[in-house]
Design goal:
alpha/beta, 9-stranded mixed β-sheet, UDP-N-acetylmuramoyl-L-alanine:D-glutamate ligase, 21% strand, 272 residues
C-alpha cells in the first residue's frame, strides 16, 4: 500500500500554532506522512513576530533535494518565502523534481499583523511561483497585494480578483473570505477546467485563529496527497479547519491569538 506523503516548504513557529509546525500537525491529523524544508527560523508566538532568521537559499535547495531524492512526494505545500532569491530557488527545485500538486499559500503577513514577506518579493511570488502551482490560497489582503488593488468587498469582487489571479498561471485560485465580515466565511475556487465553486461555513466566534491559513493550505495538500480531486480536497480542508476553529477555545495556549485545534478529532483541549 502506498503511503501518502506531503512536503511543506515554509518557515517555523516555535510556539507550534503556525508555519511548519502547523503544517506537520495537519498532515498527521489527516493521515498523511509529512516532510519539511525550512525556509526561515521565525521567533514568533501567539502575540507576534520577534525576529526572522532566513535560511540560506543553497541550504533550502539541499533540503528540498534531500526529500525528493528519497521520498515519493504526492503533494507540496509552500508557505513563507521571505526573499526573492529564496522564491527563485524554490521555483527551480520544483521544476527540477517535477513537483506535482503544488499548493501555494502566499504568506505575507502573520495573524498578528507582522510582515513575513519583503515588499520587493511580492512581484516574484506573482510572476515566478503562481504559474507553478496547482492552486494558490490567498486571503483577501494577500490577493489585493498581489494584484496591487483594494481588498474585495463582495462576492462579485472576490470572483473577479480570483479570475485575475488565474491569469498569472496557476491551475486554480482559492480566494479565502475569512478576513471578510458577516455570519458566514465564504471562499471561492476558480479553476481553468471547472465552473467557479463557493465553499461556505459559519464564521466561528473565536480569537484563536493563529495559523488558520497554514492549516487550510496544508489540509488541501493532504487531501491531494491522498488522491482527492482538487475540489474535494478543498471541501475536506474547509470542513477540517472549521471543526478545528470550533474546538479552538477548548485549548488554553498563549496570551494572544491562540492556535486552532489541529487534533480536535483525537483529543480534547481541556484537562482530564
Amino acid at each position: 500500500m502506498t503511503t501518502p506523503i506531503a512536503l511543506t516548504i515554509a518557515g517555523t513557529d516555535p510556539s507550534g500554532g503556525a508555519g511548519i509546525q502547523a503544517d506537520l500537525k495537519t498532515f498527521a491529523a489527516l493521515g498523511v506522512f509529512g516532510a519539511s524544508a525550512i525556509t526561515a527560523l521565525v521567533a514568533q508566538n501567539t502575540q507576534g513576530v520577534r525576529a526572522i532568521h532566513d535560511v540560506p537559499a543553497d541550504f533550502i535547495r539541499a533540503e528540498i533535494d534531500a526529500v525528493f531524492d528519497d521520498l515519493a512526494v504526492h503533494a507540496t505545500k509552500i508557505g513563507m518565502l521571505s526573499k526573492p532569491v529564496v522564491i527563485r530557488t524554490v521555483a527551480e527545485a520544483l521544476d527540477a523534481h517535477g513537483a506535482r500538486n503544488v499548493v501555494l499559500d502566499p504568506v505575507m503577513v502573520a495573524a498578528s499583523g507582522d510582515a513575513l514577506l519583503d515588499d520587493d518579493a511580492v512581484a516574484d511570488v506573482r510572476d515566478v511561483l503562481l504559474r507553478r502551482a496547482l492552486v494558490i490560497t490567498p486571503n483577501l489582503p494577500e490577493a489585493a497585494k498581489l494584484l496591487q488593488t483594494g481588498e474585495a468587498a463582495s462576492r462579485d469582487d472576490m470572483q473577479a480578483q480570483a479570475e485575475r489571479l488565474l491569469a498569472f498561471g496557476p491551475e486554480a485560485v482559492l480566494l479565502k473570505g475569512g478576513h471578510g465580515s458577516g455570519s458566514e466565511s465564504a471562499d471561492i475556487l476558480v479553476a481553468r477546467d471547472a465552473a467557479p465553486r463557493w465553499f461556505v461555513a459559519p464564521r466561528i466566534d473565536t480569537t484563536n485563529t493563529h495559523g488558520t491559513g497554514c492549516t487550510l493550505s496544508s489540509a488541501i495538500a493532504a487531501g491531494l496527497a491522498r488522491g482527492l480531486p482538487l475540489a474535494d480536497a478543498v471541501a475536506a480542508a474547509k470542513a477540517y479547519l472549521t471543526a478545528a476553529l470550533e474546538q479552538a477555545d477548548t485549548l488554553t495556549i498563549g496570551k494572544g491569538h491562540g492556535p486552532v485545534h489541529h487534533f480536535h478529532a483525537f483529543w480534547q483541549g481541556g484537562s482530564t
